[in-house]
Write a structure and sequence with these properties.
This protein has 386 residues and is an alpha+beta fold. The protein has a domain of 191 residues: FAD/NAD(P)-binding domain (3-Layer(bba) Sandwich), CATH 3.50.50. It is 37% helix and 26% strand. The chain has an eight-stranded mixed beta sheet with strand order 5-4-13-14-15-12-16-19. Helix 8 runs antiparallel to helix 9. Bound molecules: flavin-adenine dinucleotide. The site of flavin-adenine dinucleotide (FAD) has 36 residues, from helix 1 and helix 8.
């Protein structure tokens, strides 16, 4: 269920082992290949894709990032995480990764995929022959019988809700903060990611490609993008990201402008009968720490490998451990996302106590080598189990 990074990766792993599967997707192929979202992929996730034959284009085209820059108190503070750890980030836009994965799944590995499906429903999940029903593009109702359902249909899908309330717990956290997510047809204005911690609100700059840059501006939750005409956006970005010695941002046409209300959730366990949730369907991490797609890939590797082991040899340990194995990293990233949210938003909280303590936290990252290393490991997504 779902042709995002999670569903397509599971599909590719199954097809590589010669296992039949069907991917159902509500949108069209063109739509998912263009939907802009993530860009930062962690090194272990790229290695995981590479090991499964899914990273050829990524390794040829992705940029490698070795440092980021915080701007606060009118100064620039460079943080070279590669110097501290030897590891780096990859920047590869999510639409390119999804395009690669669809091509690999459907055109190279011969996987079946139906786009534009509607009214998807799950049945008999607590039996060993679960059923999925849906309306296809011609309006016909279809029934699919299978061994397993991988619920990879994202934050707005139906699979999470198919778990009876008494069989899973959903933990939620609402930050009470909005981010205006922007894509600009403008080259990056820095050779690294920029985080502006400013009394007027957080601002972020992230390269996506030589021609396109993602920006974020903290705004009230539920704000209307119409309140943000282009000149207001650029004036706020220039102001919040200004620092001594920093050239002004290169401006350009804004091709995406939408407000994201920052909230997180985690469903535990991620399994009900023969339904296995993966990615945003199971846990949402607001883009504060750029972790969601990485977690989706982590789940997909574990689920794909566990399904192959079970279906090919009857080995069930991977499926039995699946939820717990995913949730270790999920909770680690949730905690980092919360920590980072306080750092980003303390200065603009209106509470001078919070502003003072979170700026102290940020200075500690630059002044204490052990605090710097701890930050770098979380930022890079070091395996929490070591
Ligand atoms: C602005 C923004 C920036 C981000 N930046 C980053 C970043 O830098 N790094 C990072 O790691 N993460 C980032 N993320 C998060 C990342 O995009 C998501 O975590 C990721 O897409 C999750 O992948 P997924 O496969 O679980 O879900 P999705 O990508 O949401 O895929 C789910 C798919 O299921 C389909 N679907 C929905 N309902 C149904 C249904 N009923 N039946 C069948 N199909 C259905 C959807 O159309 C979709 O194609 C960002 C997110 C946003 C919004």
């Amino acid at each position: 269920m779902g042709a995002g990074p999670a569903g397509l990766t599971v599909g590719c792993i199954l097809r590589a082992a010669g296992i039949d599967c069907l991917v159902l997707e509500t949108e069209s192929r063109e739509f998912i290949e263009q939907r802009p979202r993530a860009g930062v992929i962690e090194e272990w996730a790229v290695r995981g894709l590479e090991q499964r034959g899914l990273a050829r284009n990524l390794l040829e085209r992705a940029q490698r990032h070795t440092q980021c820059e915080f701007r606060f108190g009118g100064q620039r503070h460079r943080f070279s995480y590669t110097e501290l750890t030897g590891h780096h980030h990859y920047v590869y836009p999510q639409p390119l990764l999804v395009t690669d994965l669809v091509r690999e799944y459907a055109d190279v590995r011969g996987g079946e995929i139906h786009f534009g499906v509607r009214d998807v429903e799950l049945h008999d999940l607590d039996t060993d022959r679960p059923v999925v029903s849906y309306t296809d593009e011609t309006g016909q109702r279809q029934l699919v019988h299978g061994d397993f359902v991988a619920g990879c249909d994202g934050a707005r899908g139906v699979s999470r809700a198919a778990i009876p309330a008494e069989r899973a717990r959903t933990a939620r956290h609402d930050y009470g903060i909005g981010w205006l997510a922007l894509l600009a047809e403008a080259p990056p204005s820095s050779d690294c990611v920029l985080f502006g911690v400013h009394p007027r609100g957080f601002a972020g700059h992230m390269a996506r490609s030589p021609e396109v840059t993602r920006y974020y501006l903290e705004c009230p939750p539920g704000d209307d993008p119409a309140n943000w005409p282009d000149d207001r956006v650029w004036s706020e970005l220039q102001h919040r990201l200004a620092a001594t010695g920093a050239p002004p941002l290169t401006e350009g046409r804004l091709i995406e402008k939408r407000v994201l209300d920052m909230h997180n959730y985690v469903v535990e366990p991620m399994v009900f009968g023969r339904l296995y949730l993966a990615g945003d369907a199971a846990h949402l991490t607001a883009p504060i720490a750029a972790k969601g797609m990485n977690l989706a890939l982590h789940d997909a590797f574990l689920l794909g490998d566990a399904l192959v082991a079970y279906l090919a040899t009857g080995e069930s340990a991977g499926l039995g451990d699946y939820s717990e194995a995913c949730l270790g990293r999920v909770w680690e990233y949730q905690e980092f996302s919360r920590w980072l949210s306080e750092v980003y938003h303390g200065a603009s909280s209106g509470d001078p106590y919070l502003a003072g303590t979170t700026l102290a936290r940020l200075r500690r990252v630059f002044q204490s080598p052990s605090a710097g290393l701890a930050f770098a490991e979380s930022y890079l997504g070091k395996d929490p189990a070591g």
